[in-house]
Amino acid sequence: MTTQPNNHYEQAFQAYLDSREQPYVTISQARKAIIHGTAQKSFDFIVHKPNGTAMLIDIKGRKLKFSYFKNDRPGQNWVTSDDVDSMLKWQAHFGETHFPLFIFAYWIFDIHSPYYFSLTRRTLPDPPRNTPRSSTHPPFAAVPRRFKRQRFALPSPLRLPPHYRLITPLSVPAACKQIVNPQPPSSDSCFMHNSRLYWFVAINVSDYQALMTTRSPKWHTVNLPAHKFRLLCKPFHHFLS
């Protein structure tokens, strides 16, 4: 049964699939399905591939700081033990032509504008000496120190002097190439939806289960150590080929 996504992470992923003209089916979360007499947690999407196989996808929305994103570092990757068990049972139910994926949809939450710029001395020269000292044209020395050594989003309606370089992304891939340094995530895994930047990272549920550790016995959550998760996960577009 198809339905509309429940949250902005799922909505962004659906828009991402639409932009790539990828065939998919959304799954209703209203009721749990019964497999062999046991209620199982539903997943979110079935995405079909040209070779006849399909991906069973469970979306996990997480927030991620831009400082992690620009260094190609995924954030939190915890799920519940029920998520893992249900996805593996769904795989057994559908057969070998279907394989389960967790997709961590990271929302880069500390970027609030489609315009990005840097106030780093290594990338921008000092302003001319005759720069007018006014509220609309502040000199470089007037910029707070905490902003001089980091990249950050342009908070509207802040106005900048003309000698500050602005980067206006015409598309998300172009934005990713210009604002990320030194090793940007693949531009195909980035997507802008409703003025929010998302990064879709996927991992096979079987690989996840093999190395997962208990995160919270009380809440029945599990996760992967950060270094193991970074080795096993891939940008989602790798699974589409």
What's this entry about, in short?
The chain is 22% helix and 27% strand. The protein has 241 residues and is an alpha+beta fold. Strands 1, 4, 5, 7, 10, 11 and 14 form a 7-stranded mixed sheet that branches. The chain has a 3-stranded antiparallel sheet with strand order 6-13-12.
Kindly describe this structure.
- With 241 residues, the chain is an alpha+beta fold.
- Helix content is 22%, strand content 27%.
- Strands 1, 4, 5, 7, 10, 11 and 14 form a seven-stranded mixed sheet that branches.
- Strand 12 and strand 13 form a beta hairpin.
- The radius of gyration is 21 Å and the shape is globular.
- The two termini are 26 Å apart.
- The model is unreliable at 113-127 and 133-184 (pLDDT under 50).
Structural descriptors:
globular; single chain; 7-stranded mixed sheet; 3-stranded antiparallel sheet; alpha+beta; 14 strands; 241 residues; 6 helices
Arithmetic mean pLDDT: 75
Structural class: alpha+beta
Using only CA atoms, what is the Rg? Answer: 21 Å
Summarize the biggest pleated sheet. 7 strands, mixed
Count of discrete alpha- or pi-helical segments spanning 4 or more residues: 6
| Proportion of beta-strand residues | 25-35%
What overall form do the CA principal axes indicate? globular
- What is the rounded distance between the termini? 26 Å
Please mark out the parts with pLDDT under 50 across 5 or more consecutive residues, or reply none: 113-127, 133-184
According to DSSP, the number of beta strands is 14
Helical residue percent?
10-25%
- The H/E string reads HEEEEEHEHEEEHEEHEEHE
